[in-house]
Amino acid sequence: MGWEDDIEPLSRLSHPLCVFCSSKHTQKELLNWQMDHLKEIDPKHFPLVLRYFFRYVENNFNTLKEILHDQIKNQDKKNNP
């Protein structure tokens, strides 16, 4: 339940091998699994799960913000050549 270097990899699509199934998963898949099994996770790991969830959501918001900014910028260029 930890990142390779204990720092969240915003640009990485996969996580090290899963300790349960020995295959790679995306951050979203791992977070979904963790949230689905939250009752079974040791309570001492809750801060990690919440931190990873927050970082994942924050990264997606930043990505959407950049996309929106680029679209607005491109629209302004089209309207004001």
Structural description of this entry:
It is a single chain. The chain is mainly α. It has one domain (1-81). 54% of the residues lie in helices and 0% in strands. The chain has helices spanning 27-36, 46-79. The longest helix is centred in the C-terminal third of the chain and has 34 residues, at 46-79. The radius of gyration is 17 Å and the shape is elongated. The mean pLDDT is 77.
Fold blueprint:
Elements: H1 27-36, H2 46-79
Helix pairs in contact: 1-2
Structure summary, number of beta strands: 0
Proportion in helices = 40-55%
What amount of the residues lies in strands?
A: under 5%
Mean pLDDT: 77
Oligomeric state: single chain
Sheet/helix structural class: mainly alpha
Distance between the termini: 50 Å
- Global shape: elongated
Helix count equals 2
The overall number of domains is: 1
Main β-sheet description: none
Radius of gyration: 17 Å
Order of helices and strands: HH
Q: Spans of 5+ residues with little confidence (pLDDT < 50)? A: none
Short description:
The chain is mainly α.
List the main descriptive attributes of the protein structure presented here.
mainly alpha
